[in-house]
């Protein structure tokens, strides 16, 4: 019997960390959520993990600004029904009960620009409808291995795989896929054949090429597929969560496959984002209380890099309510930070501006104290969990400031949340080194990147002003 798993996913975890009364119970979303339809209709083998995937999808969506609708009812797949969603995710099996108009509605919507995601047994679906095979990129052709296996990461820059390193080990049911070709898809993950028995009688391919995840275009739409997701433990694995969530975000047009692109997607431009660094010019930045960028800051390989002594740098423009995205990469033992609400009447950036800490937690002394570790509200609040990647890898930040409400997101996880100006905030500041200064009181100010004497690089610096 075919055993496939199709699942898809949403992203992130953990709610936030702040003094107990710091954040209001119903803070409005600052970005339009990605509207995701998660369909798990079973027309053949039913995977026991489906209910687990429903819970995971809802939780990941709530934490990752994905508005997820979970259903097993194919009736929603009409032109009118699909108009309510940005991405459709299949964890399905068999010949789904779609009439010709519904099939056309699905393919037409993706070709027109919607995202499509398939997980596990999504390739074990619609064998009798060839256009679906062209949409997803291939069909299930047995599962030779259900064991611990090493997965090689072919694309280490894609948002869905860049957190996985060169390879990783996982225990799951591993698919073999037919009717696919590398010329038609962009392979993200493959099986490391040294970790499996390639002479298994269920192996049908003679080329040793066993893709596990890929992307492909379909008209103006984006398609992401991963064969992982059969085992319940996989749905509890943070690596899989990020893999699926970032795959959904990419399919929605919110992330570029080339993480160093320093570009805005069509969706980002429509939503009002602007670049603060284009990979070539640092004109949006200058030294603190200076007119130009200090010599210690240079542009290298599409990144804004602190290469020598130059002091903190600030954005030329000032912001009050905003959503900021920025990638950082710290050198060994390094320390830096991202600041907002910088007032230049003060003697130093840190006299007025709260800081989201950047750190090599493993090698720097500050990493031994949660309140000064990577992602923290520096010296005031610890992150709810460790979310920083190893030194030398890129980390993705999302910083949200709306009125007095602040959120720190690191690699898809909301790690800190607080309210400026509350009694709790004032108490934290009063007990810190910031007590003598107007700390956190500048509501409209500059952004700043810190020169702490160590090499640090930044890229993909994007901001969206909020009303």
The radius of gyration computed from the alpha-carbon positions, rounded to a whole number of angstroms, is 23 Å
Average predicted confidence as pLDDT: 90
Separation of termini?
Answer: 55 Å
Question: Which class do the helix and strand fractions yield?
Answer: alpha+beta
Query: What is the percent of helical residues?
Result: 10-25%
Strand fraction equals 25-35%
Q: State the helix count.
A: 8
The biggest beta sheet is recorded as: 9 strands, mixed
Strand line-up in the sheet with most strands: 2-1-3-4-11-10-9-6-7
Global shape: elongated
Uncertain residue ranges: 1-29
Please count the beta strands (DSSP E, at least 2 residues each).
24
How are the SSEs ordered, and which strands pair?
Blueprint: E1 34-39, H1 50-64, E2 66-71, H2 79-82, E3 87-90, H3 100-111, E4 115-119, H4 130-136, E5 139-140, E6 145-153, E7 167-174, E8 177-178, E9 186-191, E10 211-218, E11 221-226, H5 232-235, H6 238-251, H7 266-270, E12 274-275, E13 285-287, E14 297-300, E15 303-306, E16 313-319, E17 322-330, E18 335-342, E19 355-359, E20 395-402, E21 405-410, E22 413-419, H8 423-430, E23 445-449, E24 456-465
Parallel strand pairs: 1-2, 1-3, 3-4, 4-11
Antiparallel strand pairs: 5-8, 6-7, 6-9, 9-10, 10-11, 12-24, 13-16, 14-15, 15-24, 16-23, 17-20, 17-24, 18-19, 18-23, 20-21, 21-22
């Amino acid at each position: 019997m075919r055993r496939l798993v199709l699942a898809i996913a949403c992203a992130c975890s953990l709610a936030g960390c702040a003094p107990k009364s710091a954040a209001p119970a119903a803070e409005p979303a600052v970005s339009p959520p990605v509207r995701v339809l998660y369909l798990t209709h079973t027309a053949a083998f039913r995977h026991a993990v489906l209910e687990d995937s429903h819970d995971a999808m809802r939780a990941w969506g709530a934490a990752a600004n994905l508005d997820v609708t979970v259903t097993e009812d194919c009736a929603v797949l009409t032109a009118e029904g699909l108009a309510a969603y940005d991405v459709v995710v299949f964890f399905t099996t068999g010949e789904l009960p779609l009439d010709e108009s519904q099939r056309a509605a699905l393919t037409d919507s993706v070709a027109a620009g919607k995202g499509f995601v398939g997980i596990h047994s999504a390739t074990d679906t619609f064998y009798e409808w060839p256009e679906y095979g062209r949409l997803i990129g291939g069909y299930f052709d047995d599962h030779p291995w259900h064991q611990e296996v090493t997965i090689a990461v072919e694309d280490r820059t894609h948002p869905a795989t860049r957190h996985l390193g060169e390879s990783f080990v996982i225990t799951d049911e591993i698919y073999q896929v037919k009717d696919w070709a590398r010329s038609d898809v962009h392979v993200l993950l493959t099986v490391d054949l040294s970790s499996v028995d390639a002479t298994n009688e269920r192996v049908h391919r003679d080329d040793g090429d066993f893709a596990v995840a890929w992307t492909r275009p379909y008209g103006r739409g984006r398609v992401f597929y991963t064969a992982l997701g059969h085992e319940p433990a996989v749905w509890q694995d943070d690596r899989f969560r990020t893999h699926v969530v970032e795959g959904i975000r990419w399919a929605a047009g919110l992330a570029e496959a080339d993480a160093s692109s320093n570009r805005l997607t069509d969706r980002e431009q429509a939503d009002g984002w602007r670049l603060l660094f284009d990979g070539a010019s640092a004109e949006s930045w200058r030294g603190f209380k200076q007119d130009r960028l200090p010599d210690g800051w240079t542009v290298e390989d599409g990144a804004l890099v602190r290469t020598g002594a130059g002091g903190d740098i600030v954005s030329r423009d000032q912001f009050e309510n905003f959503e900021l995205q920025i990638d950082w990469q710290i050198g060994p033992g390094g320390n830096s930070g991202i600041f907002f609400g910088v007032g230049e009447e003060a003697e130093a950036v840190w006299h007025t501006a709260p800081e989201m800490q950047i750190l090599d937690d493993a090698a720097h002394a500050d990493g031994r104290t949660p309140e000064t570790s990577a992602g923290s509200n520096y010296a005031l609040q610890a992150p709810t969990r460790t979310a920083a990647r190893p030194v030398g890898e890129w980390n993705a930040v999302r910083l949200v400031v709306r009125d007095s409400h602040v959120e720190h997101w690191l690699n898809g996880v909301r790690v800190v949340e607080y309210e400026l100006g509350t009694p709790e905030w004032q108490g934290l500041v009063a007990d810190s080194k910031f007590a003598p200064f107007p700390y956190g009181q500048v509501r409209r100010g500059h952004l700043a990147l810190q020169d702490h004497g160590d090499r640090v690089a930044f890229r993909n610096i994007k901001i969206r002003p909020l009303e």
